[in-house]
Amino acid sequence: MDFRIIVLCLACWVSPVYAGTLEQLDQLNTLVFQYPSQALSEINTLEGHFEGVVRSDSILMRLSALKCESYIQLGENAAAVNLARLSEARAKQLGLEQARPYFLNCMAQAYANFGDYQQALPLLYSSISLSRQLKQPQALIGGLWLRSLLNANVNHNNAAIEDLRLALDIYPDITQQKQKWTWPPKGYLYTSMAKQLAEIGEQKEAEKNLKKALNEETTQGKVLLFIALDMARFAQQNQQPNLRNKYTQIARVKLAELSTPLELAIAYKTIALIDFDSGKYSSAEQLLNLSLSTFRKEADAINTISVLWLNAQVNLKRDNEAAGLTLMEQAISLAKDNARYSDLKNCYATLATYFAEQGKFSLAYQYQLKQLEALENETLSIKNIWLSQLKADLSRKEQITPPTHSLITATTSNGIMLSSFFPIALVIVSLVIFITWYQRKLPQQKQTEHLVVNLDTKMDKKKSLEDLLNINKQAGYPLSLLVFNPKHIIAADVLIVIEQLQTKLREQDVLLQQSDQQIIIMLPHTSEQGAMNVIKQLSSTISVWQEESKVNIGLASMQQFDDLHSMIKRANINQLRKLKTN
User: Fold this and answer.
1) Model-level pTM?
2) Where are the strands (E) in 262-330, listed by range?
3) How far is CA 225 from CA 214, 231, 250, in A?
4) 140: pLDDT confidence band, cut at 50, 70 and 90?
5) CA angle 129, 134, 136 (to 5 degrees)
6) Per-residue pLDDT tens digits for 531-541
7) 204-228 exposure pattern, b = at least 16 Cβ within 10 A, e = fewer
8) DSSP letters spanning 38-93
9) C-alpha distance from residue 323 to each of 142, 286, 318 (Å)
10) Which of 503, 499, 479 lies closest to 489, judged by CA?
11) Which of 128, 171, 429, 472 has a Cα at 20 to 30 A from 326?
């Protein structure tokens, strides 16, 4: 009887203690994002209390998930990867499958912070799949938010918006989840959505989401600091200097609440970007020098590159050319070492613009070509990453789907018969496929035989022209496009004419003969008047080969709204008008 009373008393004592612990863990989840250093200290203390306590596996697993997130917030990505890997294996061993997607999320974010999308994406897709399967809305929200950030980084804006919409839709389900783990603050989802909406021109909706983020109860500490900076950047883009200054000041006040040099360095870099865009070059340079020192100590290559690039721009704006170019060379060298093609593209674009403004068009053009090459490499890299993810996704689906027996296996009762006929069938099928492929290949080869272009690139030729057009448009350089139809020239002489035309063109000019025989010539760094002079030179060459009719070359000068198709169309219209006047 006495024993039962003791057990009852212990049960009455343990229940409120356990409930209090769960409430404390919920508070820790918020604290991890607001004040990660403080949260990590409390997590370590709690882990000491529960070590060796019977039936505390789920609590210890949740503490590990919270610790992993605190490492991410503090920039300790290597520690996060190690902890997540060990904890995920431990969760499997304990049969706590529902804990696994949280550690997969943590690992994915750490790899993404390293810039290693090749490892981050498969982990993220596995996490999202597991979250749905195990009905873990908290993990699903975290996974969708992370995937939206990765999509945003490679300009997959629509995919990012869809992920964020789904995450916000299921956010209320957090309270319905019986066993809680960890989840991101709603304010971060709103700011991410605002950035994506601003990218597609939805400024009003973006502003609404930023205000929602600011009004969230959990928007305190570090969360408030970075949301305030997002508000300041949004105000800067909308030319609202008073609002920009207001939110920048809120962020500066909150800097004192950051407890590690790395957190401060990231904040300094963000404020420096706002100051740079506002023309406050002295302030921007000071903050960048402070953050650069920390990033170098932490061996954070990605942030080091971006700070060097921004600092180089500050020095170039302040007419410190030698210092600016030295910093830019350092950024380019580091970007090459780490295969950071997007950073290389930005560096080359800055140098192309700078030298064009200085009137050094030859140098500007060289950096334009390097920018184009970096853009090509970036596109190829992104394509490979997403392709590898697609293959991994298909592989997972194949593992889930039960194997189906082929028709041959089902109808053949004798294994010897199958092994006898299989090589013969394989040869016949292979022969049929080869003949079909060869017949389809022949006309394609004939069509592309006369394609002429002076760009040394493996990309599609029209894509190269489009990229060159986009680069000139972004940099604000003049560009003209000419079209000419060699229908009055004997077909056998067309290639000779093209060779002669190329001798009249500059190295940076691009000539392309389309399948309909129309010749397109793109003239970068060339105004309308300059293009008319080129037309005179080319006409004298062409007229030798078509004596009976007058040479007619269409011209279009680039406008801000132009793409390659619209420029070719306007050049054709210009050509038709000349025919009517003639």
Assistant:
1) 0.67
2) none
3) 10, 10, 7
4) very high
5) 90
6) 988 898 898 88
7) eebbebbebbbebebbbbbbbbbbb
8) HHHHHHHHHHHHHTT-TT-HHHHHHHHHHHHHHHHHTT-HHHHHHHHHHHHHHHHH
9) 42, 15, 10
10) 499
11) 472
